[in-house]
Specification:
The protein is α+β, with helices and mostly antiparallel strands. It folds into two domains: 70 residues; 226 residues, Jelly Rolls. Helices cover 23% and strands 38% of the residues. A hairpin with a 2-residue loop joins strand 6 and strand 7. Helix 1 runs antiparallel to helix 2. The chain is globular, with a radius of gyration of 27 Å.
């Protein structure tokens, strides 16, 4: 209905301009007003442009006003990428980061020197803040407790864990050589990193490629994985959505609402928790170099978790 109103205004504008043109033509015929028309053609054109701008602006104000009046938060958080006739998702947990500080009933802030994959960062609370409706994880080049870099990480272990569902984040990612942002799920059990679902990983000097990975260990301790990557936009330039649908039989990955990878292999079947971080250096991304600028920021607009109505 809102967009119909804009269309009507546009058609009315066309009608007004047509009537004005007919009247001016009549003046030319009846009164020989050629000099008047020639002398004022530029003025008339500018006036018409001003009227178009004024009416368009008014129309957009109507659109924005009606949108804010009629769209509720529950509509805004509805997932973008499923068929409502086929799947019915229920929001079970979310953080919109609308407060002044991180909600510690939902999240734990990491405070330790990273020990995985030869990474270089020390995670500190000083690199985690909530500002302007975003969770901000900062990565800095600074000396701290024997490390040359600090960064931020949060996780929901023992505060929120779940088995199966739809998980979605909207975020703008950091970039640069040696910068390694990720959003993943880990088992909410003993101190173990496997199985692991990487909703996304990005190597900072390749900011247009997103990696989607699942890791698991077999009974003999061998590391198994299934994965794919998708090359698209520069994901450090603006906000994008990243998500998965995880069931007992498969995992499907989505970027900006479009499925980019799915697998039926190595699907975890246990409670897992959320983990958000930016690593610096390590085996895969390599160390920062002179092209890497600091500080870098991982900005998260929201994190939302859904489960199917009456099912997994």
């Amino acid at each position: 209905m809102v967009f119909f109103n804009v269309f009507v205004l546009y058609k009315e504008l066309q009608g007004v301009l047509l009537i004005k043109s007919i009247l001016i033509f009549t003046l030319v015929i009846l009164f020989g007003a050629i000099p008047f028309i020639v002398g004022n053609s530029n003025s008339q054109e500018n006036t018409q442009k001003e009227e178009i701008t004024e009416i368009t602006t008014h129309a957009m104000r109507i659109v924005n006003s009606d949108f804010k009046k009629n769209v509720k938060f529950t509509h805004l958080i509805r997932p973008q990428y499923y068929d409502e006739d086929e799947k019915h998702w229920r929001l079970i947990w979310n953080d919109e980061f609308d407060g002044d500080s991180l909600d510690k009933t939902r999240w734990n802030i990491e405070y330790w020197p990273a020990e995985k994959n030869n990474e270089l960062q020390y995670y500190t609370p000083n690199n985690v803040k909530v500002d302007n409706g975003n969770l901000i994880l900062s990565s800095k080049e600074e000396y701290y407790e024997g490390r040359s870099y600090t960064s931020g990480a949060v996780q929901s272990k023992d505060k929120f864990n779940f088995k199966y569902g739809k998980i979605e984040m909207r975020a703008r990612l950091p970039k640069g050589k040696g910068i390694f942002p990720a959003f993943w799920l880990l088992p909410n059990g003993e101190e173990t990193w496997l199985p692991e679902i990487d909703i996304f990983e990005m190597i900072g000097d390749e900011p247009n490629e997103i990696w989607m990975v699942v890791h698991m260990e077999d009974k003999n301790g061998n590391l198994l994985r299934d994965y794919s990557s998708y090359v698209g936009d520069d994901y450090s330039y603006k906000y994008h959505t990243f998500g998965i649908e995880w069931t007992s039989t498969e995992i499907r990955w989505f970027i900006d609402g479009i499925e980019r990878f799915k697998t039926k292999r190595l699907v975890p079947n246990e409670e897992m928790y959320l983990y958000i971080n930016t690593a610096i250096g390590g085996n895969w991304p390599g160390s920062p170099d002179k092209t890497t600028s600091f500080p870098q920021f991982f900005s998260v607009d929201y994190v939302r978790v859904y489960q199917l109505e009456g099912g997994e």
